[in-house]
Amino acid sequence: MTFTGHTILITGGTSGIGLGFAKKFSELGNKVIITARNEKRLNQILNENLTFTGFVSDVADKDSLPQLVNFIKENFPQLDVIMNCAGIMRAINLFEQADNSLKVLTEEIHINLLGTIAVTQAFLKILVANNGLVINVSSGLSNLADGAHPIYNLTKAGVHFYSDALREQAKYFEKTLKVIELVPPLVTETNLESHTNTDAPNNMALSDLISETLAGLENGLDRIDAGFAKQLHQMGKVNSDENTKLLSQQMLSNYFPKMKD
Ligand SMILES: NC(=O)c1ccc[n+]([C@@H]2O[C@H](COP(=O)([O-])OP(=O)(O)OC[C@H]3O[C@@H](n4cnc5c(N)ncnc54)[C@H](OP(=O)(O)O)[C@@H]3O)[C@@H](O)[C@H]2O)c1
């Protein structure tokens, strides 16, 4: 069964994974609405993709969320899918106090975690009324701390637990809502990972991520661990303490190499 005929809101739809899915979903015959903060970039994407609708919106700005909800209610009352894709990732040296104001340290929490929760809750009634679907984008790095991204890891673990709880509540309270967690591995065809070489180990092509996700949607999976995210899932379950140490040593030396004598 092809994923078609839906009306899909994608937060963070102007770049990387969100933009890749926006293009694919549109190609498959879905109505696609994308959001992002940067208006200039959004307009550029809308000019290049005439089937898309766009709306400037910051998932971390609680005051602007009602405007997005009103826009959707007025123009797309048939909305039945949201994909929470907006996200940022920071490598942080927790000991560099000068760069680490609380504002900087909590930005990923506001965008990745609270943003996902706020957007989902704001559209829950509409989605349930339309037999809807939530796709929350977490990360392979939700499974264990990698050392270099201390706040990112916890935001994505939070997205995982929120998604599980929402899915279980939907079943318990007999709501017509499906909740899917999409767990991507490293995808370098993105702004978020533009600093990483495409030949990095375990990198997944964006087109492969999309194909694997569409197969997962067709097979009715609740959680789609794409590519290397399957191994990261296992690493977080079996010998997780040991794997945390190994992964952290590797990632910390990649991101914060020590000066050699
Ligand atoms: N790339 C990877 O290796 C990888 C792996 C696992 C999971 N993920 C997850 O996949 C999702 C997409 O990431 P990506 O790699 O495609 O990154 P990307 O290329 O940097 O795209 C991020 C998108 O999110 C938007 N965005 C950022 N902050 C926002 C905010 N506060 N409100 C609304 N939109 C916002 C950006 O536009 P503006 O800046 O204009 O707002 C952009 O459209 C993220 O949740 C990320 O954590 C990525």
Note down, in words, how this protein is organized.
The chain is α/β, with parallel strands linked by helices. The protein has one domain: Rossmann fold, CATH 3.40.50. Helix content is 47%, strand content 13%. It has helices spanning 16-27, 39-48, 65-75, 102-129, 150-172, 206-218, 229-237, 240-255; strands at 7-11, 31-36, 53-56, 81-84, 133-137, 178-183, 223-225. A 7-stranded parallel beta sheet has the order 3-2-1-4-5-6-7, with helices on both faces. α5 (150-172) links the parallel β5 and β6. α3 packs parallel to α4, α4 runs parallel beside α5 (150-172) and α7 packs across α8. The longest helix is centred in the middle third of the chain and has 28 residues, at 102-129. The radius of gyration is 18 Å and the shape is globular. The protein starts with 6 loop residues before the first strand and ends in a 6-residue tail after the last helix. 38% of the residues are buried. The mean pLDDT is 96.
